[in-house]
User: Which sequence fits this backbone?
């Protein structure tokens, strides 16, 4: 979906047994890390898209000024030819429409920024705390595995001093308690947090689409003002026939003949 560095490789610490961190939880941890990478790329792409909207507005204004600077599009109030006056009126409307399109472009950029960029950035600010708690959860699991392994070896060895065995047992119990305290949070809350990405992105994308619809509707309204109603309803074939008819008449003039 996103181009860039490869997605996070599937993660499963082989030293942590499945009865401590299940395969299902390990998959969610992996999926959450992949989502973090995607969210970061989404913000970058969002910024590029917003910049593109701004550049398009600048290019539209520049093109308009260059186009209207041509003598063909110079309006002359002294010209009383009805067709020329109608043409000049369209040129004035075109000039106004370009300004309005720039304003609509600004609105689209602001709507897009508020719908995609800001919520995603706000979500991303939670990632460091999430990652730290997940790392602590994994570390406590490893600490318990090591502590229990030391205790099991102490029990199995007949030469182990009872004091050392009791110490190993105490350390194993402490590690288990710390692990259980962490395990009360991560397996329950991390899946809920991961599922929240859908609840976040769904209204964001809906808002973005709605903003585009409003932009396109405004574009249609503004550009339609340049044309007459019957012209808006004309098809491409109608326009092509009209143009071909004009050229047919022009080619009949002796001045255009070879």
Assistant:
């Amino acid at each position: 979906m996103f181009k860039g560095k490869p997605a996070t490789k599937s993660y499963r610490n082989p030293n942590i047994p499945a009865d401590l961190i299940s395969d299902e939880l390990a998959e969610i941890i992996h999926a959450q890390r992949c989502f973090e990478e995607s969210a970061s790329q989404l913000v970058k792409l969002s910024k590029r898209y917003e910049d593109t909207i701004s550049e398009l507005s600048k290019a539209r204004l520049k093109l308009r000024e260059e186009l209207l600077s041509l003598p063909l599009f110079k309006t002359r109030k002294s010209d009383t030819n009805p067709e020329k006056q109608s043409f000049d009126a369209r040129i004035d409307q075109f000039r106004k429409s370009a300004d309005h399109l720039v304003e609509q472009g600004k609105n689209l950029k602001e709507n897009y920024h508020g719908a995609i960029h800001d919520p995603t950035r706000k979500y991303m600010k939670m990632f460091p705390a999430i990652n730290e708690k997940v790392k602590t959860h994994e570390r406590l699991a490893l600490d318990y595995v090591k502590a229990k392994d030391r205790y099991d070896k102490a029990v199995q060895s007949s030469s182990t001093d009872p004091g050392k065995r009791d110490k190993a047992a105490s350390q194993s119990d402490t590690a288990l308690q710390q692990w259980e305290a962490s395990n009360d949070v991560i397996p329950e809350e991390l899946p809920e947090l991961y599922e929240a990405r859908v609840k976040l992105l769904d209204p964001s994308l809906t808002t973005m689409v709605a903003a585009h619809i409003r932009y396109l509707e405004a574009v249609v309204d503004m550009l339609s003002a340049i044309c007459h109603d019957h012209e808006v309803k004309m098809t491409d074939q109608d326009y092509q026939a009209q143009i071909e008819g004009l050229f047919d008449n022009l080619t009949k003039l002796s001045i255009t003949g070879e």
Notes: The first helix runs from residue 23 to 68.
